[in-house]
Amino acid sequence: MRHTKRAFLMLEDGTTFEGKSFGHESSTAGEVVFNTAMTGYPESLTDPSYEGQILVTTYPILGNYGVPPHREKDDVSEYYESDHIHCRAIVAQDYSFDHSHWQADRPLAMWLNEERIPGIYGIDTRALTKHLREHGSMLGKIVIEGGDDCGFYDPNLENLVGKVSCTEVETHGDGDKTVVLVDCGVKHNIIRCLTRRGVRVVRVPWDYDFTSIPYDGLFISNGPGNPDMASATVENIRKAMAIGKPICGICMGNQLLAKAAGAKTYKLKYGHRSHNQPVRRVGTDKCFITSQNHGFAVDNDTLPEDWEPLFVNMNDGTNEGIRHKEKPFFSAQFHPEASSGPKDTEFLFDEFISML
């Protein structure tokens, strides 16, 4: 008989779900959000955009293919999207204690324990997800049987971009063209997608004045939290817009580019977190299936006259990208680098590189 401690997920509205612990046996708190992807928990757990959040997986089984080894390739992690787990905890309906995958070197539970991250299974994640869809993402905390309690924590009140960004300038890859990558919480596959296309990537901290160095193009990464907290990045993007060299943004990069242009952003009720979000390229009948992870969106109605939406979400009509009508500036709210998720829109990297 396997011994597991009881674990409780408590929401700020008083709703409580009881399950069993399979991760580190410690209390934690954060914003409770759900992801409808069927696979990709190693990538999601290490995605800096999940900083401060308790991740609920709607797919019933978690851990059945273990986790891959820590290994670097071309100066970044080969299988993960950062060098550590960013989620505060992970919640599942069922956990597989026996894993099977040719790349796996240990079970998910062992990895969670190594990084002191709680995990709960035995939760009715269907009921939990329906509750979050009705009431919106909300704060929550996890308490393990016999352990200490903790208070609620709202990550959106903190500058999470500054928390997850690099602190020093780094260089990746080599090539005749130089791309400045503003690290707002960059996923490693963005770096891979750029260096594979033969450019030199200069990765800079979120508040670094990159306009003081020579570059051929600017890339603004994904990242967690409220875009209003990254005002220093917005000011530097405005300087770059005056220079006029090509600019591309992903996820948080879409929101920060929009704010630099003069538009506003707002918090979505429960966000988009999945591998199956349909988006349409505006002005065409082309629809793409995309990977997404964001809780804020750009308000289309506040875009200046010289800007326009580039993509629109086919589920709820929200903004999925913007572009300047004349200058080489564009962005996507979804993740064209996927990892994990479909690679249908990776061509956006090619469009950006062709502008350099």
UniProtKB/TrEMBL annotation:
PROSITE patterns: GATASE_TYPE_1. Residues 5-143 form the Carbamoyl-phosphate synthase small subunit N-terminal domain. SMART domains: CPSase_sm_chain (SM01097). Pathway: Amino-acid biosynthesis; L-arginine biosynthesis; carbamoyl phosphate from bicarbonate: step 1/1; Pyrimidine metabolism; UMP biosynthesis via de novo pathway; (S)-dihydroorotate from bicarbonate: step 1/3. Residues 1-177 are annotated as: CPSase. It is an enzyme of class 6 (ligase). It catalyses: L-glutamine + H2O = L-glutamate + NH4(+); hydrogencarbonate + L-glutamine + 2 ATP + H2O = carbamoyl phosphate + L-glutamate + 2 ADP + phosphate + 2 H(+). Pfam families: CPSase_sm_chain, GATase. SUPFAM superfamilies: Carbamoyl phosphate synthetase, small subunit N-terminal domain (SSF52021), Class I glutamine amidotransferase-like (SSF52317). GO terms for biological process: 'de novo' pyrimidine nucleobase biosynthetic process; 'de novo' UMP biosynthetic process; glutamine metabolic process; L-arginine biosynthetic process. The active site is at C251 (nucleophile), H335, E337. Gene3D superfamilies: 3.40.50.880, Carbamoyl-phosphate synthase small subunit, N-terminal domain. GO terms for molecular function: ATP binding; carbamoyl-phosphate synthase (glutamine-hydrolyzing) activity; glutaminase activity. Its EC number is 6.3.5.5. Small subunit of the glutamine-dependent carbamoyl phosphate synthetase (CPSase). CPSase catalyzes the formation of carbamoyl phosphate from the ammonia moiety of glutamine, carbonate, and phosphate donated by ATP, constituting the first step of 2 biosynthetic pathways, one leading to arginine and/or urea and the other to pyrimidine nucleotides. The small subunit (glutamine amidotransferase) binds and cleaves glutamine to supply the large subunit with the substrate ammonia. Composed of two chains; the small (or glutamine) chain promotes the hydrolysis of glutamine to ammonia, which is used by the large (or ammonia) chain to synthesize carbamoyl phosphate. Tetramer of heterodimers (alpha,beta)4. This is Carbamoyl phosphate synthase small chain. It comes from Duncaniella freteri. The lineage of its organism: Bacteria, Pseudomonadati, Bacteroidota, Bacteroidia, Bacteroidales. The gene is carA.
